[in-house]
């Protein structure tokens, strides 16, 4: 299956592909971002 959209209450596994470079920190290095 490859739906074009999902509805509220649906579950899905997705791949996010950012259009611009992004910087992310690990949870162990910066726990407040894990909220």
UniProtKB/TrEMBL annotation:
Which Pfam families is this protein grouped with? GTP-eEF1A_C
InterPro entries, per this entry?
GTP-eEF1A_C, Transl_elong_EF1A/Init_IF2_C
Keyword Nucleotide-binding (UniProt): yes
Q: Report the coiled-coil segments.
A: none
Q: Where is the GTP-eEF1A C-terminal domain?
A: 2-35
GO MF terms listed in the record are: GTP binding; translation elongation factor activity
Q: Where are the transmembrane segments?
A: none
**Which keywords has UniProt assigned to this entry?**
Elongation factor, GTP-binding, Nucleotide-binding, Protein biosynthesis
| Gene3D superfamilies in UniProt | Translation factors (2.40.30.10)
Q: What is this protein called?
A: Elongation factor 1 alpha
- In its UniProt entry, the species of origin is given as Urodacus novaehollandiae
